[in-house]
C-alpha cells in the first residue's frame, strides 16, 4: 500500500512517518499542487493531509479533494479539531479526521483503521459527537433497533461495547482472549442483527441504548 503525506512542516512529516512505520511505501509532498502527480501512482490508496498545507488551507479545498480523488482514502489533520469540520469532511467522503499532533502510536492505529475501510475520528472527537448526538439518537431510534441490540448475545454485547469505545478488532481479540477471526465473525453478526453498517453507527446505537438504561438521577459519564 502506498501512502501520501501532504504537510509543509518537516517536523510533523517526520512524526507522521514514525507513526506509519516502515512497512508501507510513503511519498512526502509539501503542498496540494503535488497531489495530482502523486495520484498517478496506481498503488496510492491512502493520503494524510494537513489542513494547513499550502493549497489546502481549510475545509473547502479538503472537500474538493474527496470529490476529485474518490479512490483515495483521505485522513485529514487539524491543529484544533472541531466537531462541525470533522462531520463535514466525513460527510464529503473523508475517512478520518484528527489532531495533527496525534501521538505516533495512535496514528499507526488510525492508518490501520482507515486502510480497512473504517472511519477514524479520534477518541476525543468521537466522544464529543456521541455525547452530543446520543440523546437525539435515543429518541429517534425506532423500537426495533433498540430491541435488536437487546437480542445480542452477552459476548456480542461485549464486542459491541469495546468497538463503540474505539477498540480495533485486534484490540478486542486481545481483551477478550479470542482470535481476531472470531471477532470478525461477531462483528458480522452484530451488524446484521442491529442493521448497522459501520463502527460509528454501531457506536451511536450502543450509546443510545446505554442512555436508555441510565437512571434519571445519574448526570455524569466517566470518559477514559
Please describe what this structure looks like.
- With 224 residues, the protein is an alpha/beta fold.
- 54% of the residues lie in helices and 12% in strands.
- It folds into 2 domains: 2-121, 3-Layer(aba) Sandwich (Rossmann fold); 126-213, Rossmann fold (3-Layer(aba) Sandwich).
- The chain has helices at 10-20, 35-38, 59-68, 83-91, 104-115, 123-140, 143-150, 154-164, 169-176, 180-194, 199-213; strands at 2-6, 25-29, 44-50, 73-78, 96-99.
- Helix 4 links the parallel strand 4 (73-78) and strand 5.
- The model is unreliable at 213-224 (pLDDT under 50).
Roughly what fraction of the amino acids lie in strands? Answer: 5-15%
Query: What is the class of the largest domain in the CATH system?
Result: Alpha Beta
What would the CATH topology of the largest domain be?
Rossmann fold
> How much helicity do the residues have?
40-55%
Q: Taking strands numbered 1, 2, ... along the chain, how are they ordered across the largest sheet?
A: 2-1-3-4-5
Short description:
This protein has eleven helices and five strands, in the order E-H-E-H-E-H-E-H-E-H-H-H-H-H-H-H. With 224 residues, it is α/β, with parallel strands linked by helices.
List the helices and strands and how they pair.
Layout: E1 2-6, H1 10-20, E2 25-29, H2 35-38, E3 44-50, H3 59-68, E4 73-78, H4 83-91, E5 96-99, H5 104-115, H6 123-140, H7 143-150, H8 154-164, H9 169-176, H10 180-194, H11 199-213
Q: What distinguishing features does this structure have?
A:
alpha/beta, Rossmann fold, 11 helices
